[in-house]
Design brief:
The complex is a heterodimer of chains A (about 110) and B (about 110).
Chain A: E1 3-5, E2 10-14, E3 19-21, E4 24-26, E5 33-39, E6 46-52, E7 60-61, E8 64-69, E9 74-79, E10 88-95, E11 99-101, E12 105-110
Parallel strand pairs in A: 2-12
Antiparallel strand pairs in A: 1-4, 3-9, 5-6, 5-10, 7-8, 8-9, 10-11, 10-12
Chain B: E1 4-7, E2 10-13, E3 19-25, E4 31-38, E5 42-51, E6 54-57, E7 64-66, E8 76-78, E9 87-94, E10 104-105, E11 109-113
Parallel strand pairs in B: 2-11
Antiparallel strand pairs in B: 1-3, 3-8, 4-5, 4-9, 5-6, 7-8, 9-10, 9-11
Classes of the chains: A mainly beta (about 110), B mainly beta (about 110).
């Protein structure tokens, strides 16, 4: 069965600094998709970034980028120039026919 | 605007009572999902449906039931067999099968025991 592991329950970063959230996954499939979701205190689930496993190029969305290492089954999220509004729970997710989520990392932004 | 509507936002259940959480989407998505969120547990899949009149158990289906009679609707019933139902429940929808399209989520229902 597929699993997704986020080993950092909580992290803190100074405003304007860069932070990296870790995610590893386990699968025997070769074709799948990976996502990072953000859940602010409002509890809405907001898509941050997505990555297709067959693409070697790392996805980037403005201040958010990923480091996708397929052989290592690693999918970390880098947030540059951290802002107070980035404070939230971040979930890594794996998808083939259904989506499996990690347990999440709570990110605190220090002013 | 298209989206997913979950109702009610807050729900209280008495011991031994079944309750049903509503989830409706107008995104024309084939697949719909129910997740449970507890503190420190992330999102756990309860049930999912890839097509009308068909659904599969997720990781924690015991004590729950679903139906998928219409494409737009995927109600979740929390039965009296679910001994620890207090949680935040999220409904999602998306395209069927393997896809780079993300799921869309509702705003959730918080269920508590009286």
């Amino acid at each position: 069965a597929q699993t997704v592991t986020q080993s950092q329950p909580e992290m803190s970063v100074q405003e304007a600094e860069t932070v990296t959230l870790s995610c590893t996954y386990d699968t025997s499939e070769s074709d799948y998709y990976l996502f990072w979701y953000k859940q602010p205190p409002s509890r809405q689930m907001i898509l941050v970034i997505r990555q297709e496993a067959y693409k070697q190029q790392n996805a980037t969305e403005n201040r958010f980028s990923v480091n996708f290492q397929k052989a290592a089954k690693s999918f970390s999220l880098k947030i540059s120039d951290s802002q107070l509004g980035d404070a939230a729970m971040y979930f890594c997710a794996y998808r083939d026919d259904k989506i499996i989520f990690g347990k999440g990392t709570r990110l605190h932004i220090l002013p | 605007d298209g989206g997913i509507t979950q109702s009610p936002k807050y729900l209280f259940r008495k011991e031994g009572q079944n309750v049903t959480l509503s989830c409706e989407q107008n995104l024309n998505h084939d697949a719909m999902y129910w997740y449970r969120q507890d503190p420190g547990q992330g999102l756990r899949l309860i049930y999912y449906s890839q097509i009308v009149n068909d659904f599969q158990k997720g990781d924690i289906a015991e004590g729950y039931s679903v139906s998928r009679e219409k494409k737009e609707s995927f109600p979740l019933t929390v039965t009296s067999a679910q001994k620890n139902p207090t949680a935040f429940y999220l409904c999602a929808s998306g395209r069927s099968g393997s896809s780079n399209q993300p799921q869309h989520f509702g705003d959730g229902t918080r269920l508590s025991i009286l």
